[in-house]
């Protein structure tokens, strides 16, 4: 039985009729809005009607219009163990039932918080030493930026280290500091006057668009390392705080993994000049890429690391900074405190959710399943879409895969942004008869042009699920480009 057929056993279909504000369900004598524009919430798009979700279970979302949607993206690669997990719900309820609604981490400790931190450190094989817990990936990156600066300030308040180096085609968050670190022109544009002027960018590591014909991995990596070294020299090596990168670039480029040897080469340049090596694994970490941490794919541990989405699986807003001994020891031998803090950091209810998610991942050996099913997903996607004239690249790792669309496969020319190709693919996929999520993105060619979609299903998907995801993705892509060809 297919995943869609299985889902139908859990949720009855309902008839729908058109409505000016979306759809209305015909339900006996009662009509309810099934897709609507928000009236009070400042939503992502104030001109758009959104389907109303009424529930979820496992890989499925249940909509008010009667449809069952297969969630092949977990939002933005968030729902790593699926929806409605009773163990996590119970863990959250247990903490809430203690009566502890809030604890200020300035004054209080909590056992579940410490247990989560211990679990996370164990997952790094002791290569990281402490955990800073917060509420979102953007907050984690903001904390990492400040902590990196404080490392040098602790040793010398007059330190010349004021510069960061990050990459084009990157996304590190929405706060002013995190956005300033990002190399994402479309999201930066409205706020450029406010963004830090001490963040400098080098090129991304994108072999699809940057590798020369016949260029080996080692030559490509050497070229990237030379570029980073040149940027250090341009700024003055003694002025650089850190280099920041995503091991597998998510939303900005669509699941582009670093070439083998790249992370080590970048880390070596940083440590040669005494700078920190920071990895943003908010989207790609916590099992998403087939190792618990993406850097474990080649065992290149950072000085600071951010994680988020797969940490709590969407059951609570939670993220973290993983901190190396080098950084921790600097604080221990100095002021003994991090000059930073947020109201909702290290909350017991957040920690309880994240700890239970991580225990499930470990007990069910889900990271190994990610690796196995990820290889199968790659195989299925390539079998169905590698020869499509508008699928330029299929790339990713684990259960984190992207499809980049091009107008011309030979020249890799992107589509005109006005066509909104990625959004068309999403709109088609989430509509009947396909009813499956795909995550759209733009700017993958040059920061402004280029369309891609991401597939990032839950870690516990089966072989049957993978076949279903690949088949629906293929059907959607073929339909969208057939219609585009007729415009």
Automatic annotation (TrEMBL):
Keyword Transferase belongs to the record: yes
InterPro entries: Aminotrans_3, PyrdxlP-dep_Trfase, PyrdxlP-dep_Trfase_major, PyrdxlP-dep_Trfase_small
Coiled coil: none
The name this protein goes by in its record: PLP-dependent transferase
Keyword Transferase assigned: yes
Gene Ontology CC annotation, any one: cytosol
Family according to the record: Belongs to the class-III pyridoxal-phosphate-dependent aminotransferase family.
Keywords: Pyridoxal phosphate, Transferase
One MF annotation (Gene Ontology) recorded for this entry: transaminase activity
